[in-house]
Amino acid sequence: SVRVSDRDVPWGEINMDNNSDCEPVEVRPTPRVADLKIDKQGQPPIMVGQSMTFVIDVGNHGPDSVDASSNITVTDVLPGLFSPPVTVTAPDWNCPPPTGLSISCTYIGSGVVGQGNSLPPITLSAVATSPGQTENCAQVAMPGDPVAGSNKDCVGVVVRPAPQPANVSVEKKLYEAWDAITIFQIIVTNTGTTII
Fold first, then answer.
1. pTM of this prediction?
2. Which of 59, 18, 51 has the alpha carbon at shortest distance from 142?
3. I want to staple 78 with a disulfide (CB 3.0 to 4.6 A). Which of 53, 101, 115, 118 is the partner?
4. What one-character-per-residue DSSP string does 122-191 give?
């Protein structure tokens, strides 16, 4: 605010109503800068009908700390080799019931996570219903994250066909006969995929 008084003008001021002017001043807090990095881990190959578990870790590379007000969200969509439901275990995260194979979790922990520390892990599991090989990616998002390249991580997923039961057949053949001696040949065959 600036104001000019009649004492500042040697010849006298005839209008004191226009001798002041104001401009609004806004002071904003310095935004926090934290680089989040996501890491996703899977399992070795499984067979159709078995469950696969994935673990998602989110680390804070700093320099600032993060907390529930940082609006941190993790998303993941499991591949079509699996079928719902998806089981989610995520302490300090708010994870609504999955939509099909898609999950979304928002950090709601009460503590502050400083540089070099990790948020609680998110664990996903689902049953494989189709064989195949693909990859699965998880992503983390936070407003103001300066390094987007570390916000996505993928793992390979391999689902093998379920083994077929053993299918054993027996065949008996006349092998040789002379005088009073007869020799038969017995052939046992497994046409299934299970080793016996």
1. 0.72
2. 59
3. 101
4. EEEEEEE-S-EEEEEEEEEE-TT-S-GGGSEEEEEEEEEPPPPPP-EEEEEEEEEEETTEEEEEEEEEE-
